[in-house]
Input
Amino acid sequence: MPVRFQLNGVLIEENDVSPSMTVLDYLRETKGLKGTKEGCAEGDCGACSITIQSALGRVKTVNACLMLVPQLDGMSVVTVEGLSAPDTDMHPVQQALVDNHAAQCGFCTPGFVMALYAYTQTGESVTPESVHEAIAGNLCRCTGYRPIVDAGISLGSKAEKVIPPAIEQSDYYTDGDEDFFAPRRLEQLVALKSEHPEAFVLAGGTDLGMRASKERQPYGQVISTANVTELNQIERDQDSVRFGAAVNYTRALPILEEIAPSFAQLVRRIGSRQIRNLGTIGGNICNASPIGDTAPCLIALSAVMIARGPNGQRDIPADEFFTDYRKTVLSADEILEAIRVPIPSPDLIFRAYKISKRFDQDISAVIGAFALKVEAGVVVSARIAFGGMAATPARAPACAAALIGQPWSLDTAIAGGAALTEDFTPLTDFRASQDYRSRVAGNLLQRLHLDTTQDGVAVEVMAL
Ligand SMILES: Cc1cc2nc3c(=O)[nH]c(=O)nc-3n(C[C@H](O)[C@H](O)[C@H](O)COP(=O)(O)OP(=O)(O)OC[C@H]3O[C@@H](n4cnc5c(N)ncnc54)[C@H](O)[C@@H]3O)c2cc1C
Ligand code: FES
Ligand code: FES
Output
């Protein structure tokens, strides 16, 4: 079956494009749509922003550099060329950028146009904060962001809503050389993984996409989880929320905001909207990076990873999921099906802190996640996890032991921070030195104390 999608209103059927071709290369080289720019080719600059929308979904901005062409199957795709026809009035978003003098060299401008176009379709209230968040994944080297934000604010709800046609999706695409499987059901996914244990499992592709965009390597065989019904479900009962492994951050956010606002705040800082519209918690976990943001939170919250293989399902406590640097307990024929997150009880204090060089769109140097119970001023339980401090995200048992049974005071927090030297001997790399990591991790305990004992105190440098 061909890859079918609508591109700027025209139905496209592709039969012989390599499944390893990025959408950015496809648009620029195959379709000659050069308005979509290549800046970084790794999801960091937003110059390649386009929008995608399924018949049932909303308009989402994504980075074309990180996507593979078969990921467009069934989508309606809009590039900057599709917003207004030549010799017609500019689209309101384009006009707003002109009116606000929000471009100079113009290289970044199509990306900003597309990010703001998607923003105007979300229906959220237009505030400086939401405009900032909407364009946090777009870099401009010359104009300065103030006029661009002004343009975003001026847009209000001018843009019209568009519902694209339903396009039949295919569950297999090949160019004769490489295979792209897009199963719909869990049992098909598991069978495919058993048959092709070496195939790449692709969720959003915001980590895996780098293989095509940066390393320029073909994939051979890809099994996409994006269309698997079971992996796209979010189920909630009294005690927990079960996130299917293919649920992206944008979908997970409103629920996380309800059950663990501090976790949600951290997720809001994962990449950009472009990244969160595709990236999944499942991908973050399976990527098994020591600096992945969600793992410390899931460990501190006692989440459970649900794996599925030919022999059925098994539950793995989050703190037992990671075995070594970028390694997990999943066997070659297993996939991650879901993540079960217990709903914190009202007396559980949960906080997650991300330390990175920039507030937005940056990878962490250190992540600390803390789940404490304090009764009558005394810490009665503490489950603490860190990322960026070891080869895997991990619990901090000595730190937790230094808190339990002690009054929840600044001295106890300092003692807990000092105990981290027993838990971790971090590495020096280009993100942070060993000394910095140790000190900042220890200081996070003091932040936690301040944050949980003094109302309204600012513990985070905010974007605005
Ligand atoms: C610009 C940019 C900024 C980023 N910022 C952050 C950040 O701030 N914090 C952060 O933590 N991460 C960040 N990331 C990394 C990435 O976005 C996240 O790790 C994301 O959660 C990956 O999810 P995905 O769905 O895109 O995974 P994919 O790229 O599709 O897959 C990642 C890995 O998981 C495997 N996998 C995926 N799903 C399954 C499954 N169901 N079963 C088995 N294996 C599976 C894949 O085979 C692959 O090895 C950033 C990435 C970019 C490009
Ligand atoms: S080219 Fe920079 S985000 Fe894609
Ligand atoms: S206008 Fe030059 S990079 Fe933004």
Remarks:
- The first strand starts at residue 3 and ends at 7.
- The pocket of FE2/S2 (inorganic) cluster (ligand 2) is lined by residues 38-41, 43-48, 63, 65 (CB under 6 Å).
- The radius of gyration is 23 Å.
